[in-house]
C-alpha cells in the first residue's frame, strides 16, 4: 500500500519536473506541449476518476507551489478540466479508441487554456498587477501550437500503450 503511494508521489514529482524544467526549455515552440494534461487524460481514460483526481490534486499543488500566479489557480483549473473530461468521457466518448482520446485531449486543452486565461485575467482585473489579457495573433498561434503538440503527444502515447497493452483500440468502429 505504502509502496504504491510512494511510487505515485515519485511519478507525480517526475512529471511536474519534466514539464517545468525540460519541456519548458525546449526550443522552436515545442515548449507549448502540456504533457501533464495529456497524461492526466490517459490516466482518466485507462484507470478511473478517483485515481486521476489524486494525480490532479498532487500536480495542481506542485504547479501552484512553483508558479508566480496566485495559489490555487492551477489546482482549480486542472480539477475543473478533469471533471469536464470525465463527464465527456462517460457521456460522449464511451469507447477507448484513438479518436476518443484525440477528441478528449483537444477538448480538455481548450477548456484548460480558456479557464487559465480567464482566471488570470480576473486576477489581473482585481489586482491590476502583471499583464492584462492580450489576445493578439501570437496568443492564438501559441494556443493552436499547444493543441497540435498535445494531440501529437496523445497520438504517440496511444500507440505506445496499444503496442504494449490490448486495453486500447485504434479504430472507432469494430467490425463484427
What is the gist of this entry?
The protein has helices at residues 2-22, 35-46, 49-65, 73-91, 98-127, 137-164.
Which key terms come to mind for this protein?
mainly alpha, 176 residues
Describe this structure as you would to a colleague.
The radius of gyration is 17 Å and the shape is globular. The mean pLDDT is 88. The protein has 6 helices and no strands. Helix content is 72%, strand content 0%.
Helix and strand string, N-terminal first? HHHHHH
Q: Structural class, from secondary structure content?
A: mainly alpha
The main pleated sheet reads as: none
Which parts are unreliable, with pLDDT below 50 for 5 consecutive residues or more?
none
C-alpha termini separation: 42 Å
By DSSP, the count of extended strands is 0
Count up the helices.
6
Percent range of helical residues: over 70%
- Provide the gyration radius in Å: 17 Å
> Which percent band covers the strand fraction?
under 5%
**What is the residue-mean pLDDT, rounded to a whole number?**
88
> Which overall shape is indicated by the principal axes computed on the Cα atoms?
globular
